[in-house]
Amino acid sequence: MPRYLIERTFPDGLGLPTNAEGAKAASNVVSNNAQEGVTWIHSYVTPDRKKTYCIYDGPSPEAIRSVAGRNGLPVDRISEVRVLDPYFLY
Amino acid sequence: MKLLERDELLTSLQGLLRNAAAGQGSLLFLEGEAGIGKTSLLRAFAESQRAQMPVYWGACDALQTPRPLGPLFDIAAQIQGEWQIALNSNVERLQIFSSFLTELARPPALIVLEDLHWADEATLDFLRYVGRRIGRTHALLVVSFRSDEVGPSHALRLVLGDLATSGAKRLSLQPLSIAAIQELIGDRDVDAAELQTKTGGNPFFVTEVVAAGGVAMPATVRDAVLARAGRLRPSARAILDAAAVAGPRVEPWLLQELTAAESGWIDECLATGVLCAQNGAFMFRHELAREAVLDALTPTKAMSLHRMVLQALQSRATPDLARLAHHAEGAAFEDAVLQLAPAAAREAAAKGAHRQAAQQLARALKFATASTAQRAALLDDYASECQLSGMVSDAIDARLSAVELWRTLGERSKQAISLARLAHALVVSGKNAESEVTMREAASLVADDASGAAAVVVRRWAAHLRMLDRDVTQAIHEGELAKAAAERLGDRESIVHCLNTIGSSLIIAGRVDEGCAQLERSRALAEEIRSDSWVASAFVNLGSACGEVYRFDLADNYLRRGIDFCSERDIDFSRLYQLSWQALVWMYRGRWTEASGTAHVVLADRRSPVIARITALIALGRVRARRGDPAVWEALHEAQELAGNTKTLQRVALMQAARAEAAWFEGRTAEAASEGCAGVELAVRKQHPWFASELLFWCWQGEGSLPGGMPEFCMQMPFAMEIHGRWQEAAEKWRELKCPFEAARAMMEGDESAQREALTVFESFGARPMIERMRYKLRSAGVRGLRRGPRESTQNNLAGLTTKEIEVLGLLSQGLRNKEIGERLNRSSRTIDHHLAAIFTKLDVSTRAEAVSAAYRLGIISAKA
Question: What ipTM does the predicted assembly reach?
Fold first, then answer.
């Protein structure tokens, strides 16, 4: 299954609190993803919380867009990516 | 018989039946290996319900080639009424299916269909039809099948997949536990643990072992059955053998006649429990037992029993042709097979079971080995049935043999017709060059009698191929001549075909209204001669030809109707091809989510013909390219591979244009030009204004050159207007054609306000490559005040909707139309269109209703108290 990097912009900052409410929101995302065979691996968030870079596994870019719609998350750009590990080079 | 460890399943069944009676019908698939107890469970359940509501029971038989709609005939025998009459007369099967729902499923009822792993095609179509609609009835339909016989490529798998989305439920039966096995053993001297290991807890196996007396534990279920049968006295055993050959359900008179038996011996079989009496027929306690007894017969013994069964059935004038053909083959009666199998094939074909028809013809072919006209005709019929059931390569092989045989027999007209049909099979599988050669050969054979019946068939197919290859003038000319000849002969199917060819050609030639009228006439006449496949073909060509000349309003309407028509009749080939065109049309109309979703449906279905795959891949590739998403070239490389082989304009031009556009978005201008250029010569030669002007457009965008210049016949095309700097006209034309993306692309070449509007449109679609180009262009021209990223949005709005978009959503949720929303917000309705497109993109939905419900779900707007 291809891996994708999804760039998202949150002009007012990502509103995902680190409490029970935030955990519930995150688990909603996970269950919405499952319906399209999409897996959220993890994300990087800028300190101002205005941009996120998310790593996802999914069957197609359309599946990534579909779950973004369901989760109400914006999409700026989807890129297909592969892992490059510096320690592999030794 | 006592039912062990099935209480939970019975409770589930009761629940479903209760819901059904209350108006929420459902379809349940009950699966499990052979002998696991599906029938026992269903019988027990049916018995407990019989007092409350009618129970209908039908089963598929383990015949090599089952009788079409066999289970429905079983049910028909249990009821009286119009439905039974309809089934026995030659009523269209769609009517049979729909009156089944109104007559049987509308009032509360339990309907059981057993052993669907043996189902014929028509029964599976029935299941698909009823499964999609059972929710609105008061019936529970339970369908059982052997899970170990339904592999990944089994036809029932496709039905399971199709119905999974319609809410069909599935239950499976589990093996017996040690405790249950111990209960069955009772105080006999058998080790329960060993029995469980040996039998895997299979109830049938367990009971056979227990009944066999269990001195030595039999290794297989077959051994267990034979051990039990071995205890019968010879006369009783002879009855068992005859019953095994006679079929899963044996009429009492038949068994009497076969064995001249006194009922005493039959009673012995019943007493040992190997046979049982059910609904006025004898049957084995389990199909596994019948199989074991059948396998143990010597070939000569089996043959002579088949002979007796056939004679007995024929003396009573049994109407079940598939059953008669089965025994004729078993008896190795050549004459009987050659008479019965083709008759069974005709019956199957009339019911839409084309795969079974092909199998019956294959059966006849096994016996018609001599090089006779009979064999050649069978080969032709076999090829036609193969093609209808999607086995195109088998069709080609059989047709080649038929051609060769007609040639040896000196039958030139027959050979010519076979060749013409072969040419069509070749085109469908993308072998266009071979098809041309074949068609020339066919034409040369009928050249001396150009108005004979065979010549008309050859000529209409020749005209059809010209149309497919987009030699439209020639196709119209040849089609008219063939039609005139067909009219003189009164050959109505040929007239339908010619009207189809002429109509499609006229649309492609730009005479859209005339063309649609001819195709509509073809469709009406096809309905008169009751040819579903020609009705479907008329819809296919109305939809795809209108799409090819950018008449998306017409295309959309015809495709919708055509897809409905084909779905109801399960004409998969045409349905999937039309779906692929729907994806393409939606792509052009800016409905990208629907377009890519539909393309995925076509690509995921292994029944999709090559031409549908090509079209779906192009639609998907273009949506991805326009969004700036990855995996563009995955789709477009595969499209190139498949379309390249056909070398025919309608595939090549669509594919080259898509590849040119994708390369251009990625900034590879030389490649964009060369991709466009690759199709120009062909498109100009065929005088196709849309294809020629689009491909030239990409040459121009790529390298600023027009190889061969802009031909006169392209001058009024919007692509030519864009090239010639007539951006306003072009944008207007694109808007008229309902192509918002193309309209914005034309405005990109306009003045600053046009460019700003173009940017809004691109933003609303999330068309990243064009957004970047447009911003760059505006900035380079010194325009200031462009936002760098997405607009400011309100708090707690994860979807990134703007304040204005949320306002629009709020008004949308009140049910306002675009014009009214525009008036409230003091904006033009075109601006509201842009906002809606942006909302749809951000929420990844495709309708207004979906947008509103997504907004509520995400808390973007809140329900009023």
Answer: 0.88
